[in-house]
Design a protein that fits this description.
Largest sheet: none
Helix content: over 70%
Radius of gyration: 19 Å
Number of helices: 6
Structural class: mainly alpha
Shape: extended
Distance between the termini: 27 Å
Number of strands: 0
């Protein structure tokens, strides 16, 4: 049994766990934004001290932050498709180049999820 299945089973059995992971993801998002706004001058001064070392470190920290946010959101997702973990909505794969078609595919996906889990 994969780790994805374990997380999905746990979050489906205990709704408060998935709510807690989602809350942690939102808290991390807003904490990251607040940290960047409050310490903007210090971050820029730190980057200016050694560009070759500090800029890649900052980019790596940003990538890690985004992965943590998405990981917490995936762990908090209780509405998974049967037999698969962490699928994207149809618009990413079959929506075509148009933003309008991707949006309409996303709306159809959300309607389908709502009907399936009532």
């Amino acid at each position: 049994m994969s780790i994805c299945s374990n997380i999905k089973d746990l979050s489906q059995r205990h709704g408060w766990v998935s709510d807690f992971f989602s809350l942690l993801a939102v808290a991390l998002l807003f904490a990251s934004i607040a940290f960047a706004l409050f310490y903007e001058r210090e971050i820029v001064a730190w980057m200016g001290a050694n560009l070759l070392l500090h800029v890649p470190l900052l980019i790596a920290a940003l990538v890690l932050d985004v992965f943590l946010i998405f990981g917490l959101l995936c762990a908090g997702a209780t509405r998974c498709e049967d037999g698969a973990c962490f699928r994207t909505f149809r618009g990413r794969r079959h929506g075509g180049p148009s933003i309008g078609s991707a949006f309409s595919n996303w709306v159809r996906h959300m309607e389908h999820v709502g009907k399936k889990h009532r």
